[in-house]
Amino acid sequence: MTIVSSDAAWRRLLDTASAPYRAAGRFAWHFARGKLGMDPVFRHLLSQGQIPPGSRVLDIGCGQGLLASLLLAAGATEPRPELWPQEWPAPPRGTRVTGIELMSRDVERARAALGAAGDAARFVCGDMRQAEFPPSDVVVILDVLHYVNHAEQNRVLERVRDALSPGGRLLLRVGDAESRRGFAISQWVDRLVTWTRGHRVPPTFGRPLAAWIAQLQSLGFDVEPRPMSQGTPFANVLLVAQRRAAPGAPA
Ligand SMILES: C[S@@+](CC[C@H](N)C(=O)[O-])C[C@H]1O[C@@H](n2cnc3c(N)ncnc32)[C@H](O)[C@@H]1O
Question: What are the counts of helices (DSSP H) followed by strands (DSSP E) for the chain?
Answer without folding.
Answer: 8, 7
